[in-house]
Amino acid sequence: MNCNLVWFRNDLRLADNPALNAACADGARVALLYILDERAGAASRWWLHHSLAALSKDIAARGGVLILRRGDPVKIISALAAELGVKAVHAARAYEPFWRETDRALDAALKVMGVALHRHLSTSLFPPERITTQSGTPYGVYTPFSKACFGAGVPEGSTPAPDAIPGVIAQSEALEDWKLLPVHPDWAGGMRAEWTPGEAGALARLETFLGGPVKKYAVARNIPSVDGTSKLSPHVHFGEISPRYVWHRAAALVAGDGVQTFLKELLWREFSLNLLWQHPDIRTVPIRPAFARFPWEADDAALRAWQRGRTGVPIVDAGMRELWQTGWMHNRVRMIAASYLVKHLLQPWQVGEAWFWDTLCEADEAANGASWQWVAGCGADAAPYFRIFNPVLQGLKFDPAGAYVRRFVPELAGLPDAVIHAPWDADAGVLAQAGVRLGTTYPLPLVDLADGRARALAAYESVKS
Length: 465
Known about the structure:
Elements: E1 3-8, H1 18-25, E2 29-35, H2 42-60, E3 66-69, H3 73-84, E4 86-92, H4 97-113, E5 116-120, H5 142-152, H6 189-194, H7 199-210, H8 217-220, H9 233-237, H10 243-251, H11 257-278, H12 300-307, H13 314-326, H14 331-344, H15 349-359, H16 365-376, H17 391-398, H18 403-408, H19 428-434, H20 449-464
Parallel strand pairs: 1-2, 1-4, 2-3, 4-5
Helix pairs in contact: 3-4, 5-11, 10-11, 11-16, 13-14, 15-16
């Protein structure tokens, strides 16, 4: 046996990559492998294509080769181990149930061959079993969890990308043959304009954020019309940048509300991973069992209107269109749009989660499932059932000049600020002057907001009782 194998998953980077560092440490040749995750949604597949292309280029510049394969990881890695004389397999530790089951099966198969499987902490700040209550049980509430994380301290130290990788060549599939990119129609134009997938793009995005926006992050992150968030979530999800590196680069700045708020957002991601570890079916099964009998009113027409940004509620429609165009949605608007779907429209939260899974570049099993359960009120540390966002009031508060709505719902651009979030309240003359014909150029609301709120409260009361 004369080589190590690195199995890339959601750690598509060379810097601060513990699996790669360990594989290169003993001077052996290194086989670098990526196996296609067939479960990815359409937007994630677009991102993955470009991220793998960037990683392959970075590896080639150091003398290595990225091997691409498609199929059963256990069979692929076992076969490569036999073919190449692999003595150890190194991979990032994964928390998704699919990968946990795969790792168990792979470990058993490799042991028979005399090959070691090493899994490294790479995609999270802490192992999921690390942060527990004083009694040793997992946290179910975010605030004490985050305090425990701050108390534990994120381990320091990160390693640069290796200068050279003594790569091993093996048969590889062609990235283009995986057909991860859209063809007809090509719906990815907005994503190409918005993002630069890959490790270099991730580092540039971090430095831009830490160079200015982070100082105002505590307030600006709630204003969808300004560039006030980090937009690092897709990069961190695919592991193009280490969460540990992001944490320590941010924590090294002069302390302020912006930095602390940003660090807490990183810990919400960590909390979501812990919830996934405790609840492997977090994407489909409510954490609170009583919600299994919630009286949802599934309506395909209402769901399609929401998906297409045609609900008749401007701030909701703007968010859904931003998602479709860019593969990302502002966090404040995500909460508004999600609340509207599950509470005003009484659609099951699982259908919203499934749509985000397909359309978000960063579709993440932990964060997506935990966040939808939080909004629906059925998750750990969930929003109170009676907390129902009024999308008009939310729009007036966080998009008072209507800039965000005007960008993504241009048919309303001519409306005055006072009515752009509730065009149904505008008089006929104002609508005519703006060229808005409700029900024609822009839809009428699917539901009356007051009626929708009352219906939601009644449904939640039925579960509570």
